[in-house]
Amino acid sequence: MSYLLSALSFLLELAFSALATLFVLRLLAEACRADFNNPLSQFVYRYTNPVLAPARRVLPNWRRINLAALLVAWLLMLLKRAMLFALLGILPGVAGLLLLSLADLLDFVLVFYLVLIFAWSLMSMFQVDRRQPVLRLMGSLVEPLLRPLRGKLVIGGLDFSPWAVMIVLMLLRLLVVAPLTHVGTALALGM
Questions:
Q1: What Å distances lie between residue 47 and 40, 42, 44, 69, 164, CA to CA?
Q2: For 119-153, how does the pLDDT look when each residue is reduced to its tens digit (9 = 90+)?
Q3: Which of 54, 94, 113, 178 is deepest in the core (most CB within 10 A)?
Q4: Is 160 helix (H, G, I), strand (E, B) or coil?
């Protein structure tokens, strides 16, 4: 029976991660002012707008942060956590569930950026068309993180700023997300 639970947990994680990716991409693309004419930006906008348009009437943007997209992404993580607990037959504490879903969202964004920066760095090493939509969107999303270190960590013609940012993101996972997850789990299970 645990194999079936593992498979169902995997499918839940996959489905909710795919949905959360759309809303996190929308959130980050608006925050980073990604090119709206990019076909990928239009795809994300087209598929998230039916959900976000009604929510934005109640929850407007704050500066360049799309609060509706942030709320939907957090609610997706909350629903995922609740369903995973339900699969295990556990009724979690509400405070723990809320904190765990916040930790999940933060971890998701950090891992998303880790993968994005790694892929962008890898693609920048090869001869790739700079007008390619994926590379343009990736560049506009990683540029705000890399800009403060750009040119300051150049050794032998190589820019190590992506590595430094990735190390900071990993430290954030270890020093912020892990304690939040630990406290959230303790609260959810009533320990």
A1: 11, 9, 5, 12, 34
A2: 988 887 787 777 788 888 998 999 999 999 888 88
A3: 113
A4: coil
